[in-house]
Amino acid sequence: MEVDIQITGILDEFAGHIINETMIHSMNTLMPKRQKPIYVEVEIALDDDISPAKALVHQEDEDSFFMSIADSVCDDFDELAYCVSHECVHIKQYLRGEVKDLAVDKKKWKGELYNLKEVNYADLPWEQEANLLEMPLANHVIKKWGL
Questions:
Q1: I need a surface site. Which of 20, 69, 89, 130 has the fewest CB within 10 A?
Q2: CA–CA separation, 124 vs 127, rounded Å?
Q3: Within a domain: residue 147?
Q4: Does residue 52 form part of some domain?
Q5: Residue 55 falls within a domain, yes or no?
């Protein structure tokens, strides 16, 4: 699968390599049969701008995504790999139609409606899946670079 990644706001070149490699590995692992390319614009943001999140992603259109990563995460390469892997699981969920944004505080997961104001973050099924898969995905890059 082709993953076209554009990163803005990165200060550490090696952090950019970690983002690229983690995203390519994660997407190829999560969606090995996908033929169409995906496009991901990554922005390194001020922590205060996305707090309390360390990273987030949303779908721009069918094959395009916007990912924001807190700048402090880029200082810890292990954490950066985990965050990028976690967000890649969400990209897979969007591409497969497993999760859909309906409103600021409403999502649909595999046909079931969730009000984000009424459910604990840790109990959201799409977050549970991302938390479960982030470590094995990130560990590939962490081991490769000896992080």
A1: 20
A2: 5
A3: no
A4: yes
A5: yes
- Domain membership of residue 12 as a residue range: 3-142
Q: Nearest 5 degrees, angle CA 11-CA 15-CA 21?
A: 140
Pairwise CA distance, residues 33 & 124, whole Å: 27
- How do 3-8 and 38-45 pair as beta strands? parallel
pLDDT tens-place values along the chain, 147 residues long: 899 999 999 999 999 999 999 999 999 999 999 999 999 999 999 999 999 999 999 999 999 999 999 999 999 999 999 999 999 999 999 999 999 999 989 999 999 999 999 999 999 999 999 999 999 999 999 999 887
Listed residue (36, 24, 38, 76) closest to 55, CA to CA: 76
* Amino acid sitting at position 70: A
Q: At what angle do helices 77-95 and 125-145 cross, to 10 degrees?
A: 130
Q: Residue 140: what residue type?
A: H
Dihedral (CA of 1, 80, 72, 101) sign: positive
Contacting residues for 120 by C-beta, under 8 A, at least 6 apart: none
Per the structure, the count of domains in the chain is 1
Degrees, nearest 5: CA angle 121-122-128: 115
In tens, the pLDDT along 77-98 reads 999 999 999 999 999 999 999 9
